[in-house]
Specification:
Elements (H helix, E strand, L loop, with lengths): L2 E6 L3 H12 L3 E7 L10 H4 L10 E2 L2 H5 L5 E4 L7 H13 L3 E4 L14 H14 L2 E4 L10 H7 L4 E12 L6 H7 L17 H16 L6 E10 L4 E3 L2 E3 L4 E12 L2 E11 L15 E10 L2 E6 L6 H15 L1 H6 L3 E3 L15
Helix pairs in contact: 1-9, 4-5
InterPro entries: DAP_DH_C (IPR045760), NAD(P)-bd_dom_sf (IPR036291)
Protein name: 4-hydroxy-tetrahydrodipicolinate reductase
Organism: Nocardia goodfellowii
């Protein structure tokens, strides 16, 4: 069966999702939405960075694309600074009877226990009204801290604690808005960026903890957050920005699921702009990794290293995009509603072996 797909946005993740859609034999690209007039009219092959045209041109006309009645929209538009607008976009797609796989807003990957019921209900109602499904995922939050730890847990006799970590150097991550505006790198240490405002960490990554708890049948007493920032010890250059000594250049945050007074589930990010910073913090395998640790019997530690042309940051972007595209057939065939990782069957890179 062939599934008709629209790619919604062509930024970092969107361009790689576009490449994945074009590469998959079971998917037919029928449209591309872009936010800028400069990209409108360009062929999808050019926007995907390919050396060939594919015969589908981008447009800013959302109504025309929805009128095509695709089976699925791969939605990768930036939502960190426009959360409510992004939710309204998703609801619009669903009411139109179009299934959606999306990289954001990330709290929708498992909103239960993180968002109030009255915030979840309108999304579910839109899906049921249109008879369509929504699945939000990626790599983190996503398969690095849902399917990876859950698969590993199946080989346990006893589980005392699960820790999922992203340990990365972000100096090559090509998203200045995220790195500087949202995460606050390069700012004064007493200036809290958007990410570190009260409750934001548990809103974004508390969903990871809640999903693991549900899948492992753990009733949590609370979900807590903690963060620590360290300054640059010398001048750093990140893209076209200069990070001054004394400004934020390393960030470690943790979200804990607490039961019986102890941390049983932990989501951790250890982010540096230079590998020499914070040597006492956890160190990655290779240049950057996603790490899953299960304390129990037996103890497990899984380090997932990832590279694309030697760049771990680009590899993470590709892993986010490809994960969404891989799930399109399963999401189209799923029941209407808001789906989570545990609702889907195993999805693979079918058709991609060269």
């Amino acid at each position: 069966m062939t599934y008709r797909v629209i790619q919604w946005s062509t930024g970092n993740v969107g361009a790689r999702a576009l490449r994945s859609i074009i590469a998959r034999p079971e998917l037919e690209l029928v449209g591309v939405w872009v936010s800028s007039a400069a990209k409108a009219g360009k062929d999808a092959g050019e926007l995907a960075g390919l050396s060939r045209e594919v015969g589908v041109t981008a447009t800013t006309d959302a109504d025309a694309l929805l009128a095509l009645r695709p089976d699925c929209i791969v939605h990768t538009a930036m939502a960190d600074d426009r959360l409510m607008e992004a939710v309204e976009d998703l609801k619009r797609f669903l009411r139109a009877g179009i299934n959606v796989v999306s990289s954001s807003p990330v709290f929708l990957q498992y909103p239960y226990g993180t968002l109030p019921d009255e915030a979840i209900a309108p999304i579910v109602e839109a899906a049921e009204e249109g008879g369509a499904s929504l699945w939000v995922n990626g790599i983190d939050p996503g398969w690095a801290n849902d399917w990876l730890p859950l698969l590993l847990s199946s080989g346990s006799e006893r589980i005392d604690r699960v820790i999922c970590s992203e340990i990365m150097d972000y100096s090559t991550y090509d998203n200045p808005k995220v790195v500087f505006d949202i995460m606050g790198f390069g700012s004064e240490l007493d200036e809290l960026p958007m990410l570190l405002q009260p409750g934001v960490l548990t809103l974004a990554w508390g969903s990871v903890i809640r999903q693991l708890a549900a899948a492992l049948d753990i009733e949590l007493d609370s979900v807590t957050q903690h963060f620590e920032r360290l300054p640059a010890t010398g001048k750093l250059t990140v893209g076209d920005r200069t990070i001054a000594p004394g400004t934020a250049a390393a960030l470690r945050f943790q979200i804990h699921g607490i039961r019986g007074g102890r941390e049983v589930l932990t989501l951790e990010h250890v982010t540096r702009l230079h590998p020499d910073l914070a040597p006492e913090w956890p160190q990655p395998a290779g240049k950057g990794c996603y790490r899953v640790e299960i304390k129990g019997d037996p103890d497990y530690q899984l380090d997932l290293q990832l590279y694309s042309n030697g760049d771990h940051a680009l590899a993470g972007v590709i892993g986010t995009a490809a994960r969404l595209v891989s799930a399109v057939p399963a999401v189209v065939e799923a029941r209407p509603g808001l789906l989570t990782a545990t609702d889907l069957p195993l999805t693979t890179g079918r058709g991609l072996v060269s």
